[in-house]
Design brief:
Layout lengths: L2 H5 L8 H9 L12 H31 L4 H26 L1 H10 L10 H38 L24 H58 L2 H54 L7 H32 L1 H6 L8 H13 L7 E2 L3 E2 L2 H23 L1
Antiparallel strand pairs: 1-2
Length: 401
């Protein structure tokens, strides 16, 4: 493979597909020229689309929850999707409030130190890009299947009196128990559920894609450190001063690469710490409520299947952040070992000094935090699952008593 082809790899492909989807749903504006008419029409489209497909649905769910304050079953039925949309609202605000910084984060994926320098590093990054796109598409498919299960549940899961009911809870200023109000509300709920779900997934997988950038870059850095030995063992043996300086230059590049990784991690944490914290906290409640709702319906019903799929989607979204956050911890923890196995015995004093400084710095593995408290790790995911089950047990006991 040609060296130019390796360096031309576009690392923004980790999140390009996600960005296009977010643009389509009107949650985040593309970059336009200041005098571009397209910017005006996009903002008009985004405002109209988001108002109809998100804001009105959110207000409907909020009104229904207020109306159902005296009934625990109705409250839980109205609240689980409302909480999801509440966190989604935080994500939308984050994307738009930090619009310039998010574009800088995306552009920063293509910084010089992040580019691959050999075929092996190229393959590492290419595999990461393919995995990021595959995860997004699989989530899209899961979202459509979940929404379809919700959509068909009223057709097959009839009440005792065989009356019509909507797939989801919501308040409307007209009767939904007869035509044409039922049909209008039914179509509207199906539409906003699919659009809201896909838009929410686009933002969540954008965040997971950004974490995957960190994970892949740490793999590349580990590879670069180990290759110092592979490429320059003969140079160290000959004690050629010029080549020894070249080895030190490569180590300095690795140190600079590590510094850029830390900067990217800080930028990511600053932009999305509120969104991830909100999803962690609300995720516990959503999983708890969805389990409670599942306990109220027959196992063989479509609503049970829909709630189960929804619960799985929420858990997998959180797991994705925690898994790759945990991967970042493990790969950053390997940096000290990778640095140690390079050719340092016969290297220059300057090289040894720089290597010692780098190894001392990498004694502390990189960790991603949400609000400075929640660590993106598998331990946090286990804590979320355990908390959800504990709260469900309490809620179920209160309902039964």
């Amino acid at each position: 493979m040609k060296h130019s082809a390796i360096e031309d790899l576009d690392l923004t492909e980790f999140v390009t597909f996600n960005l296009k989807c977010i643009h389509f749903f009107g949650y985040f504006s593309p970059r336009f020229d200041k005098s571009s008419k397209r910017q005006f029409f996009y903002r008009l489209y985004a405002f109209t689309f988001v108002m109809f497909a998100f804001i009105l649905s959110l207000l409907s769910q909020l009104a229904k929850m207020i109306e159902s304050l005296d009934d625990i079953e109705k409250i839980t039925d109205a609240s689980f999707l409302l909480l999801t949309n509440f966190v989604q609202c935080i994500k939308i605000l984050s994307f738009n409030f930090y619009r310039v910084k998010i574009w800088k984060l995306v552009d920063g994926m293509n910084r010089t130190s992040f580019k691959p320098r050999n075929v092996e590093q190229y393959e590492i990054l290419l595999d990461g890009i393919k995995m990021s796109k595959l995860i997004t598409k699989l989530f899209f498919i899961a979202c459509v299947i979940t929404c379809a299960s919700w959509g068909i549940s009223p057709l097959f899961d009839r009440d005792i009196d065989d009356s019509l009911h909507l797939p989801l809870s919501g308040w409307y200023p007209f009767s939904t128990e007869k035509s044409p109000g039922f049909e209008f509300a039914y179509v509207y709920q199906c539409f906003v559920t699919v659009v809201g779900g896909l838009g929410n997934i686009s933002m969540d997988t954008f965040m997971s894609g950004s974490i995957m950038v960190l994970s892949s870059q740490l793999s590349v850095l580990n590879n670069a450190l180990r290759n110092i030995k592979d490429k320059h063992v003969s140079a160290s043996a000959k004690k050629n001063q010029e080549e020894l300086k070249n080895i030190n230059r490569i180590l300095v590049e690795c140190v600079n690469h590590h510094r850029n990784i830390l900067q990217f991690a800080d930028d990511f944490t600053f932009l999305f710490t509120t969104s991830i914290t909100g999803m962690f906290v609300v995720g516990v409640i959503i999983v708890c409520i969805s389990m409670f709702q599942m306990s109220l319906v027959p196992v063989a019903s479509f609503r049970f299947v829909a709630m189960l799929l929804y619960q799985i989607c929420v858990l997998v979204e959180i797991y994705l952040w925690c898994y790759y956050g945990n991967d970042v911890i493990l790969k950053s923890d390997k940096l000290t070992e990778s640095a140690y196995v390079c050719q340092w015995v016969n290297a220059s004093e300057e090289f040894k000094h720089n290597l010692l400084y780098f190894m001392t710095r990498t004694q502390f593995p990189l960790k991603l935090y949400a609000s400075g408290y929640f660590t993106l790790s598998l331990d946090t995911f286990k804590a979320i699952v355990k908390s959800s089950w504990s709260y469900f047990a309490v809620l179920n006991q209160v309902h039964s008593s």
